[in-house]
Design brief:
single chain, 737 residues, alpha/beta, 2-enoyl-CoA Hydratase, Chain A, domain 1, Rossmann fold, N-(1-d-carboxylethyl)-l-norvaline Dehydrogenase, domain 2, 8-stranded mixed β-sheet, 6-stranded mixed β-sheet, globular, disordered C terminus, binds nicotinamide-adenine-dinucleotide
């Protein structure tokens, strides 16, 4: 029999080598067709008397990324249709559907012939669950091998036997940690945990897998043997009596109960380990069915899996512009941002000319990369040669003439219109006529800056976030005159450096900073009202934000907030800012010299390490506090999410952001907006525009007009519309409000 996605070759010893190699895909993924074929392969190899055992591997450089996004998407669509058509049986049908993979893997592990998985590279999610169902697992010791069950990161959990097999192979604590964090394991770590049997040189992988079968590997899993004992000793042991309360406590501390998928992992393991294996699988299947019906799973999969991939693959790239190959990228300004931009560009294999006012400053910028490379080589993340090659791609210079070959120049000089004007003119005097100029400005509108350019259609904003090496998001800012070639080039560049772009039309603060400052300003309001600072910070984290607003303000600097408020007043007049906010930052910066982490004094105190930062005790004298028990923490949480989501809705209404996927992905990657919501607009869609508008009306009465729902929101609430319905990214062009 021949298969589309698999090749089978049986050797003289009767070992069938099944190679998974999907045509027209860079990575193997589970699709309906893959499962059908795998099912047939299990039948075929089981029935064939010549086959003594099966080695399962991949024909690609990675093993597999797990489930295919189109399959997951179709599951949600099917479920929605079923709920309308046959609500009484919809959940049962979903239950049957999700059981398909579980059943297939169980069939494989009980087929009576030994199966060995030969893991040659990245092995994620369902692919690792398949490997766990094999009787033997061999992994290559290549750096490319990353083993993980990362489902929790997109709101679900390993639902094809993972929650039952992992804690039957390794101790409960490690199993829970692996699944509730979704973190990656190296081959060596997976072996130490008992999740793989052997780790070998890449070229010996298949040979070693075959040897396991030749050496008499039993086609029976440990849990199917009589007298099987759980490696962690089971749930009713003194060790477990210590572990389980702590595990629930830690999960609560880390997630505040916001992630149903993570909680379900604990339940599956705790309940599953008390019953026979097949019953454990049923328990998992039930929880999986339940979790798939949550708003959190739906929204997280949509934003963090589907939309992120689509944006990364250039969903917003103008069609018809040839893909840009970057011979050299110029970076002007080798300071805090420019030095990091040079590093990520060189790390992506692109040569960089790094320019500053003098050679010393340019070299200082390159030294940043030298430090990072040294660190990576020391930690074994880069070889010495790779590190040297990376550094050789960065050429520091003080001569603009060195930019002549650059197809793209990114400017990261001082945030000063005149300095930027000079730089634009100097750069344009030397670069090729078709080269693109990008500014990394964080506050100056692109259209205004482009007025200094002789070719504004080739002028664009590429706004990085700090720390550039870590932050996955880049905002691409389209000015009034920016053309398609500039947009395509900017998106090709962002893709080349492996970041996720969102395309934003020009506005003060663009998208991310507009939202971030709403978050910070709500905290100012709360301080002024007398909400205790600790409550402000904790409630924000309980709402799902990664960093409290006061802590965040300390990081970005309070004097930057002051600068932005002053610039807003200068450009738009006194009424554009809340005078109480102005007074607050003026007091902090001008009177108290509390600028944030950078001068060791802000809303927090920063004692010498290893002591931890703590809230500045005098804040409560500055703003007399109410008793915490007089304040409803649920309302404090709501205020944070609502004020940010409202700002996101405004950016859509104003045509600044045009695609809800970008608002959502940008909010999570840009400032960690409560990921379980799926992002700012999914937060609104998730509760429904009607409920959101009602909530905002209530908040507006109590806390001010900035909570008043916008005309678009009110109209959508009346019509029962969602953002993804009205601004359907897959349908016709977004309708303006
Ligand atoms: P920085 O002061 O650390 O670096 C600016 C660099 O530009 C300095 O090395 C300076 O010597 C150099 N420079 C100044 N004038 C120059 C000229 N005429 N020619 C060549 N080099 C010149 O500032 P930064 O924090 O890196 O910010 C740079 C830009 O990035 C600003 O526009 C800022 O708004 C933007 N930005 C900053 C952040 C952040 O978190 N700091 C985030 C996003 C964007």
């Amino acid at each position: 029999m021949s298969y589309t996605n698999f090749k089978i070759e049986t050797d003289a010893d009767g070992i069938a080598l099944v190679t998974w190699d999907m045509p027209d895909k860079s990575m193997n993924v589970f699709t309906q067709e893959v499962m059908d074929e795998l099912d047939a392969i299990v039948d075929q190899t089981t029935a064939d008397a010549n086959v003594k055992g099966v080695v399962f591997t991949s024909g690609k450089s990675s093993f597999s990324g797990g489930a295919d996004l189109s399959m997951i998407k179709s599951m949600f669509t099917l479920q929605a249709e079923e709920r309308k058509k046959d609500p009484a049986n919809a959940a049962q049908k979903l239950f049957n559907l999700v059981g398909r993979m579980t059943g297939l893997f169980r069939k494989l592990e009980t087929c009576g012939k030994p199966w060995v998985s030969a893991i040659n590279g990245t092995c994620m999610g369902g692919a690792f669950e398949l490997s766990l169902a094999c009787h033997g697992r061999v992994a290559s010791n290549s750096k490319a091998v990353k083993i993980a069950l990362p489902e929790v990161k997109v709101g679900i959990f390993p639902g094809a036997g993972g929650t039952q097999r992992v804690p039957r192979l390794t101790n409960t604590q490690d199993a829970l940690q692996m699944m509730t964090t979704g973190s990656s394991l190296t081959a060596a770590r997976a072996k130490a945990m008992g999740l793989v049997h052997e780790v070998v040189e890449p070229e010996k992988l298949v040979e070693a897998a075959k040897a396991m079968i030749k050496n008499g590997l039993k086609p029976v899993q440990p849990w199917d043997e009589k007298g099987f004992k759980l490696p962690g000793g089971g749930v009713w042991t003194p060790a477990s009596a210590q572990l389980w309360p702590a595990a629930s406590g830690i999960l609560r501390r880390e997630t505040y109960g916001n992630y149903p998928g993570a909680i379900a992992i604990l339940k599956c393991v705790y309940e599953g380990l008390q019953v026979p294996f097949d019953t454990g699988l049923k328990i998992e299947q039930r929880y999986f069915t339940e979790i798939l019906q949550t708003t959190e799973a739906f929204s997280m999969i949509r934003s963090l899996f589907v939309s992120m991939q689509e944006l990364g693959k250039g969903a917003r790239r103008p069609a018809g512009v040839p893909k840009t190959e970057f011979k050299t990228v110029g970076v002007i300004g080798a300071g805090f941002m420019g030095a990091s931009i040079a590093y990520v560009t060189a790390a992506a294999g692109i040569p960089v000319t790094l320019i500053d006012r003098d050679m010393e400053a340019a070299e200082k910028g390159k030294a940043h990369s030298e430090g990072l490379v040294k660190d990576s080589v020391g930690k074994g993340r880069l070889t010495k040669e790779e590190g040297e090659a990376l550094l050789s791609r960065i050429t520091p210079s003080a001569d603009y003439g060195d930019l002549k070959d650059a197809g793209l120049v990114v400017e990261a000089v001082f945030e000063d219109r005149q300095v930027k004007k000079d730089v634009i003119e100097k750069v344009e005097a030397v670069i090729a006529p078709d080269a693109i100029f990008a500014s990394n400005t964080s506050t100056l509108p692109i259209t205004g800056l482009a007025k200094n350019s002789k070719r504004p259609e080739q002028f664009i904003g590429v706004h990085f976030f700090s720390p550039v090496e870590k932050m996955m998001l880049t905002e691409v800012i389209v000015g009034k005159e920016t053309g398609d070639k500039a947009l395509a080039t900017a998106l090709d560049y962002v893709a080349a450096i492996k970041k996720t772009p969102i395309v934003v039309n020009d506005t003060r603060g663009f998208y991310v900073n507009r939202c971030v400052f709403r978050y910070i300003h709500e905290a100012y309001d709360m301080l002024i009202e007398g909400v205790p600072p600790a409550m402000i910070e904790n409630a924000a984290k309980m709402a799902g934000m990664p960093v409290g607003p006061l802590s965040l303000n300390d990081e970005v600097a309070i004097d930057l907030s002051q600068k932005i408020l002053k610039a807003t007043v200068a450009d738009l007049g006194e009424k554009a800012v809340d005078p109480r906010h102005m007074a607050l930052v003026n007091k902090m910066v001008d009177e108290l010299d509390r600028r944030g982490r950078k001068n060791g004094k802000g809303f927090y105190e920063y004692p010498a390490k290893p002591a931890k930062k703590y809230l500045w005790p005098e804040l409560k004298t500055l703003y007399p506090q109410k008793a915490a028990d007089k304040i409803d923490v649920e309302v404090v949480k709501q205020r944070f999410l609502a004020t940010i989501a409202l700002e996101a809705a405004r950016t859509i209404e104003e045509g600044i952001v045009t695609d809800p996927r970008e608002a959502d992905v940008g909010s999570i990657l840009g400032f960690g907006f409560a990921p379980y919501t799926g992002g700012t607009l999914s937060y609104i869609d998730g509760m429904g525009t009607k409920a959101f508008v009602a909530m905002c009306n209530k908040l507006a009465k109590a806390y001010g007009d900035h909570f008043k729902p916008t005309p678009l929101l009110k109209e959508m609430a009346e019509k029962g519309e969602t953002f993804y319905g009205r601004f359907d990214p897959y349908g016709e062009a977004p309708k303006a409000a």
